[in-house]
């Protein structure tokens, strides 16, 4: 028996074991089996490079698991220790297979097999398949599934709630347009769905256009559509949805620019409009998107030759547009700015952890903290997964922070410098989805919206209650029941899907490092939107919620094939 068959057997067995242990469902199992059939002839290389990489993976994987089980020991400890060990073998097997693949395993040999006409047709087929997948969800949830945050913005769009920029006014404007045209959010919801279908179809076109074999791109796309919460997410009204779509498109468009040395953008009005529109959505639809967009454009101006003038013009134009948006436009409509205290949420978590552990605190600092919230309530409400239980408590006085920001920062520094390990622990727990490859318990506060099918407390917004277009309670009930069956809502289960964000983060960063080592640093900028988004989440991740990290999974899927589809001067197929 050939050596690579032994490797395939290990991957297959571990995959079946994870299924048998009910870690993930039948579809995921089948999808993870697909590559094994097509890669059965890959010759596994036990080179020093590959063995060193596997060794490094083992060290990092064991280290993260030690951190994970120490910081957040699961109730079902033995079960998840077994799961973690099996996953380690599974990941190691696929990593070795990935490292052993030649370009002939990834790409078609003949250009005729990926002609422009065939590539366009393939993208259309992908788009049609996605429409088919979306149809039952659109029937069940149009004009748009809603929860607390979205009801608030919908109330503002209807004119019954005072306008605020706590959730970006930009998305409220889009909802307002939908309301004026249809008296419902249906246009906004359909726009999300259409944008997601376009992004995935364009992703498929890029992969096909660069010769990637159809089975690889189809498997990746199937995983994105059916192994994530993409589909239910896009029929739910959240500002994060259009941001996630735009961040993914920005990654794809940047690849086109760098791959063509700027010709994709130069002299093509439609490319200009797509790129500009994408950046507008990134910068305006989430508050952290402004920092992502400006930093990204500055880096492109500084480091990427050939498009500096264009990028500088876009940067100046968008800063001017944002100044008009955040100044005269918001003043014209009396939009109340978001509370300054919101940007300090992660610091509130640091102090909350120190207070919850009953660490000794100086009397001066205690006095200031008491003005914000009584310490006994802070101890009671502190939750490692999110700041909301503290900062949304009825006694929480955010005005104390708003009016005394210097004093707040001074108090925070006193506590953090005195108890740095407690603050670091709080930080790691708050951003757990970004690093914990074991996932997280779905029953934690803040993850309640994971399913996107739980009935929202509409009584809070009786005057703005959502009216469904179709009377299909049975279909909605079926989707809800299936969602809970696949991902139980309890304090014990860590669904497979909750580990995907951390896997995505490590994939993006690993590929970026690989490109730097290979002296293809320009292509690191393709991943820069994702890297910058990771940075903003590290500084201020609101809660354990998939909508904050969904774009990272999309970008990681592209990162997996990025080193293969990047052209070198020596030609298309170098191996």
TrEMBL record:
Chain segments annotated as transmembrane = 6-39, 51-71, 77-101, 122-142, 186-208, 215-235, 272-304, 310-327, 496-517, 523-541, 548-566
Q: Which UniProt keywords apply?
A: Membrane, Transmembrane, Transmembrane helix
The keyword Cell membrane appears for this protein = no
Q: Does the keyword Iron apply?
A: no
User: Which InterPro entries does the record associate with it?
Assistant: DUF6020
What's the protein here called?
Glycosyltransferase RgtA/B/C/D-like domain-containing protein
């Amino acid at each position: 028996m050939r050596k690579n068959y032994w490797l395939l057997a290990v991957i297959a067995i571990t995959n079946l074991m994870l299924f048998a242990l009910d870690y993930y469902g039948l579809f995921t199992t089948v999808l993870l089996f697909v590559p094994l059939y097509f890669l059965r002839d890959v010759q596994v290389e036990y080179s020093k490079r590959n063995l060193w990489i596997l060794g490094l993976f083992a060290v990092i994987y064991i280290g993260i698991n030690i951190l994970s089980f120490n910081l957040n020991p699961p109730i079902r400890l033995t079960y998840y220790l077994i799961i973690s060990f099996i996953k380690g073998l599974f990941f190691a097997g696929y990593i070795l297979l990935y490292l052993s693949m030649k370009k002939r395993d990834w790409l078609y040999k003949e250009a005729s097999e990926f002609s422009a006409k065939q590539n366009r047709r393939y993208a259309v087929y992908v788009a049609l398949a996605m429409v088919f997948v979306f149809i039952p969800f659109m029937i069940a949830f149009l004009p748009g599934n809603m929860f607390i945050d979205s009801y608030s913005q919908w109330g503002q769009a209807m004119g019954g709630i005072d306008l605020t920029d706590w959730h970006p006014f930009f998305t409220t404007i889009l909802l307002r347009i939908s309301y004026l045209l249809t008296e419902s959010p249906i246009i906004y919801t359909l726009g999300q769905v259409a944008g997601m279908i376009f992004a995935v179809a364009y992703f498929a076109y890029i992969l096909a256009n660069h010769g990637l074999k159809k089975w690889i791109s189809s498997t990746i796309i199937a995983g994105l559509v059916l192994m994530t919460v993409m589909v239910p997410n896009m029929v739910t009204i959240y500002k994060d949805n259009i941001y996630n779509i735009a961040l993914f498109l920005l990654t794809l468009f940047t690849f086109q620019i760098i791959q063509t040395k700027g010709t994709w953008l130069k002299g093509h009005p439609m490319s200009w409009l797509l790129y500009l529109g994408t950046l507008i959505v990134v910068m305006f639809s989430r508050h952290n998107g402004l920092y992502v967009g400006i930093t990204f454009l500055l880096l492109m101006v500084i480091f990427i030759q050939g498009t500096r003038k264009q990028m500088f013009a876009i940067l100046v134009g968008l800063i001017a547009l944002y100044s008009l948006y955040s100044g005269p436009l918001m003043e014209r409509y009396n939009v109340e700015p978001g509370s300054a205290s919101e940007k300090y949420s992660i610091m509130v978590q640091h102090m909350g952890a120190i207070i919850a552990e009953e660490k000794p605190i100086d009397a001066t600092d205690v006095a200031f903290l008491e003005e914000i919230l009584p310490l006994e309530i802070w101890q009671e409400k502190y939750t490692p997964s999110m700041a909301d239980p503290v900062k949304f408590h009825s006694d929480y006085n955010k005005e104390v922070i708003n009016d005394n920001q210097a004093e707040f920062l001074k108090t925070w520094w006193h506590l953090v410098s005195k108890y740095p390990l407690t603050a670091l622990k709080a930080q790691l727990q708050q951003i757990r989805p970004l690093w914990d490859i074991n996932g997280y318990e779905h029953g934690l506060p803040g993850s309640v919206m994971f399913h996107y099918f739980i009935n929202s407390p509409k009584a809070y917004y009786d005057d703005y209650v959502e009216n469904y277009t179709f009377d299909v309670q049975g279909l909605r009930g079926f989707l809800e029941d299936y969602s809970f069956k696949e991902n139980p809502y309890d304090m014990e289960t860590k669904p497979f899907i909750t580990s995907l964000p951390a896997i995505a983060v490590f994939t993006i960063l690993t590929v970026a490092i690989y490109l730097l080592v290979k002296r293809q640093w320009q292509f690191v900028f393709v991943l820069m939107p994702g890297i910058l988004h990771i940075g903003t989440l590290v500084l201020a991740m609101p809660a354990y919620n998939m909508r904050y990290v969904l774009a990272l999974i999309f970008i990681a899927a592209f990162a997996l094939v990025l080193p293969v589809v990047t052209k070198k001067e020596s030609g298309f197929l170098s191996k």
